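Contributing new complexes? Match this layout with protoporphyrin IX containing FE.
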Amino acid sequence: MGKTLEELQTRDDGGDSTELIGDLAYTPDDQLTPTAKLIKSIITGGASGETSDTYPNVPIKGTSACKADTCCIWQYVANDMALVFRGASGRCTGLARGAVRLGFHDAAGWSKNTGKGGGADGSIILAPAEMTRDANNGLQEIVAQMSRWYARYKDYGVGMADLIQMGANVATVVCPLGPRIRSFVGRKDSNVACTDGLLPGVNQNADALIQLFQDKTIQPHGLTALIGAHTTSQQRFIDPARAGDPQDSTPGVWDVLFYKQTLGQAPPRVFKFQSDVVLSQDPRINPELTQFAGPGGQDHWNEDYAREYVRLSLLGVYNINNLTDCSKVLPPATISYSNPDQAVLDKWLASTKHSDPVAKALRDGSPITNLLNAVLALLGKIRREVTFAA
Ligand code: HEM
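Output block (do not edit by hand):
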């Protein structure tokens, strides 16, 4: 075995994920392709899961030159995705966040206890039973969008499992400050629904959540990094009366504020998930989470998230030795960003009055400055009219 025991032990302080997955667990090193070796190194803590690969001369779609490069068609897919994942404010949209969650929910339908089936196999869309499960509520819009992309590109050889995972990675890097995660294609699709009950529940305790992820080979440090995806989100279904309320003060931005606010104070409108709170207080999670929240936390988190997402995106994949690295098709990362409308956003976050237009604008990635001023002016006008009439 190439990943020497010595190397594994160096990294294995009990919190990091090092376990081999899929066919990497039984394929000898001298039979691994360079791509499979790279994946093995990433998931065991050697190589970085982030990439700066670029694709300078993309052949025209449909030409023999494009057909000759597996990654070529993926450049067209990634371009289409980036268009709907970035909003006018520069923040990522609700569809982008849906894509990140969809990538997680497809891949997480695998566990060491359920054998070879499930995982990153596209079944969340290809097996309609999966989308009838409560745990997948909220993914309807992104599933409809992915299905349209699949219809457009499947004749070019694009598979659903890869489409979903490429979607998650394009979405992540489109979110300002998000990492550019190495992206592989060649997974096998399945239309068999994965075992039910493999997704985490927002009301589960820390022991249950940590065990659930460990059964997927994801150790506490990896889980700490992955839940950071909630930095972008706006819940809609845990408490429908607060639909649109974000999980930190900067929804649509891939920053570490989520960790700071989950640990400490947050404005009234920030809706903390119970699962994130109990995890943040657990001694297996808290030290790493505190590091992400502290100085230098962004780079540390991006690096760890990318590594762990490479692992997650390959759960249940038993042909890692046949995959192609298409990281070069990803959009560039946005490495510095501050919200142009944060002052207005903060006013909204400080209030508890529900305002659908602001929540919707945030979901669309639109700037909210004008919108919120219009809403405040209208409220002022109504107040003046009511006072006058009285
Ligand atoms: C402890 C584990 C987790 C639990 C209990 C959990 C639960 C949830 C829940 C309940 C929602 C809100 C759904 C809604 O009301 O709209 C949500 C949203 C989201 N989750 Fe998680 N999640 C977990 C881990 C993860 C992981 C590992 C990822 C990604 C790697 C992820 C990515 C997201 C994203 C991006 C959203 C926002 C979706 C949107 O805005 O439409 N979650 N999660």
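Reviewers usually confirm one structural detail per submission. For this one: Residues 342-389 form one domain.
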